[in-house]
């Protein structure tokens, strides 16, 4: 009889200990809660990426093979030094790999005052089929950062209709497009540029072409 009472007491004690341990672990700010919240956030991001991949990878501001079977999405900022370094590798990659298409989503950072107008210039050039040429100008030259003469940049990128281009820069639809890209990045918790994504993987920052190739495999 005594042994059964002791056994029940031990069981009750163990249950209390487990409940207390669970509370300590899962309470707000506890280590278990943090891990749980992180897991849930990663699941949410993965679901968002799967559900929005079609629109995220849609043609428009892209370069490489337009019918490429491998797609890499980049959230980028035209005043970002690491984005500029990544640009050289990406251009080299699409030059060698005819199955690769790179889609650029604009993510101008608040501390880069010319990044947003540069994104608008790229979008307006894309409307006339000159995205890649403008994209190269923005990453491979510096004149626009000293003197943001967008009409000059449009002419240098061989944009056919510079008046239409100038009107596009001021159009509300262009700013909405930039905000939509930023909102998409924020939904994926993009915190810095460049951030690269495939359908099921991502890397933040640029450490070299080998890492980008591994992302695509």
List the helices and strands and how they pair.
Blueprint: H1 2-26, H2 31-56, E1 62-64, E2 70-76, H3 81-96, E3 100-106, H4 115-126, H5 131-140, H6 143-146, H7 150-156, H8 162-170, H9 172-187, E4 195-197, E5 202-204, H10 209-216
Helix pairs in contact: 1-2, 4-5, 4-8, 4-9, 7-8
Structure description:
- With 217 residues, the protein is of the alpha+beta class.
- The protein folds into 2 domains: 2-51, no CATH class; 57-216, Glutaredoxin, CATH 3.40.30.10.
- The chain is 61% helix and 11% strand.
- It has 10 helices and 5 strands; from the N terminus they run ααββαβααααααββα.
- It has helices at 2-26, 31-56, 81-96, 115-126, 131-140, 143-146, 150-156, 162-170, 172-187, 209-216, and strands spanning 62-64, 70-76, 100-106, 195-197, 202-204.
- It has a 5-stranded mixed sheet with strand order 1-3-2-4-5.
- The protein is elongated, with a radius of gyration of 25 Å.
- The model has no long low-confidence stretch (mean pLDDT 87).
Radius of gyration: 25 Å
What count of structural domains?
2
Give the integer mean of the pLDDT values.
87
Task: Output the structural class.
Answer: alpha+beta
Helical amount: 55-70%
List its traits.
alpha+beta; 10 helices; 11% strand; elongated; 5-stranded mixed sheet; Glutaredoxin; 217 residues; single chain
Summarize the structure.
The protein is of the alpha+beta class and 217 residues long. It has helices spanning 2-26, 31-56, 81-96, 115-126, 131-140, 143-146, 150-156, 162-170, 172-187, 209-216; strands spanning 62-64, 70-76, 100-106, 195-197, 202-204.
């Amino acid at each position: 009889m005594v042994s059964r009472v002791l056994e029940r007491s031990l069981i009750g004690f163990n249950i209390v200990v487990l409940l207390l341990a669970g509370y300590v672990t899962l309470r707000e700010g506890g280590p278990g809660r943090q891990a749980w919240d992180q897991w849930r956030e990663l699941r949410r991001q993965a679901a968002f990426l799967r559900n929005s991949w079609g629109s995220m990878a849609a043609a428009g501001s892209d370069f490489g093979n337009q019918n490429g079977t491998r797609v890499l999405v980049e959230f980028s900022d035209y005043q970002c030094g690491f984005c500029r370094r990544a640009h050289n590798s990406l251009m080299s990659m699409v030059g060698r790999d005819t199955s690769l298409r790179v889609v650029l989503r604009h993510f101008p950072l608040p501390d880069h005052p010319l990044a947003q107008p540069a994104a608008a210039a790229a979008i307006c050039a894309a409307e006339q089929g000159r995205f890649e040429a403008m994209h190269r100008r923005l990453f491979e030259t510096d004149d626009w950062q000293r003197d943001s003469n967008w009409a000059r940049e449009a002419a240098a990128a061989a944009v056919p209709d510079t008046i239409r281009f100038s009107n596009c820069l001021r159009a509300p639809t262009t700013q909405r497009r930039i905000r939509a890209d930023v909102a998409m990045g924020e939904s994926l918790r993009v915190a810095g540029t460049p951030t690269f994504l495939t359908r099921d993987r991502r890397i933040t920052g640029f450490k070299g072409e080998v890492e980008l190739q591994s992302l695509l495999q």
